[in-house]
Amino acid sequence: MTTSHQIDSSQYVNEVDRLTAEVRALKRQLRHTQRLASVGTMTSMVVHEFNNLLTPIISYAQLAQQDPRLTPKAISRAVTSGQRAADICSAILGMARDERSEPTVVDLADVVRSSLTAMARDPQRDGIELICNVPDGLRINGRRVELQQAILNLLINARWAVLKRLAEPPRIVISAENVGESVFLDVTDNGIGIEPQDCRRIFEPFYSTRDSDGGRDGNGLGLALCRDILDGMGGDIAVESRPHIGTTFTLRLPA
């Protein structure tokens, strides 16, 4: 005979399962929304870069109309710039899609390159020295789009931080190495740094050290989602920073 206690317990378990499924769905939706927000943050950089790509194409095409001998050069410039524009679009579209695939083996260097391409604007155009020491062949287990989202968020943050500090030439360093069963990826900048009290809370949802100004995520979700993404991959994220000196974010990824 079924007791009321057994019925209540069954209803409780069903309700917990339903709420758990809803939380998972909301997390997926939040990650996708944050990716779209990152794309929105990059809009100004994309527009500037596309203008830089289109201007020489148009100029050489106009010159080739006047002097047919310049046609080969105009075609060459169009192919080079057009391919660059296509690569940017491909990287951004990859960020925007809602990926729910199972974790796979991913080449970390390739993901870093895609993240840099998705930024559209070459950091050197803003006087930023970019050093990338991520060797080919470092493979990790994870979801490519989510990993790209985490790396891109850190790069956007680093770009904002170094441009805020004008005391020395801005620099961003991306490096990675394999240690045992993990791969460690560092994103280091010599920007304005983070205060100690902020470092203790920086991964909390909705905690932000500044107002949104279009250069870095100001809604307090970017780093919280980075941590959530790394947790879901069986990894983690840590930060070391000194105010007015710089910051290093370290991702530990399962090899």
How would you describe this structure to a colleague?
- By secondary structure, the chain is an alpha+beta fold.
- The chain has 7 helices and 7 strands, in the order αααβαββαββααββ.
- It has helices at residues 4-41, 43-66, 71-96, 108-118, 144-164, 196-199, 222-232; strands at 104-107, 129-133, 139-142, 171-179, 182-189, 236-242, 246-254.
- A hairpin with a 3-residue loop joins strand 6 and strand 7.
- The longest helix has 38 residues, at 4-41.
- The chain is globular.
- Mean pLDDT is 81; it is low at 212-219.
Compact overview of the structure:
The protein has helices at 4-41, 43-66, 71-96, 108-118, 144-164, 196-199, 222-232; strands at 104-107, 129-133, 139-142, 171-179, 182-189, 236-242, 246-254.
Q: Which CATH architecture of the domain at 102-254 would you pick?
A: 2-Layer Sandwich
Helix content: 40-55%
Largest sheet: spatial strand order: 2-4-5-7-6
CATH homolog superfamily of the domain at 102-254: Histidine kinase-like ATPase, C-terminal domain
Distance between the termini: 52 Å
Low-confidence stretches: 212-219
Report the CATH topology name of the domain at 102-254: Heat Shock Protein 90
Shape: globular
Please count the beta strands (DSSP E, at least 2 residues each): 7
Task: Quote the beta fraction.
Answer: 15-25%
Average pLDDT, all residues: 81
**Count of individual helical segments:** 7
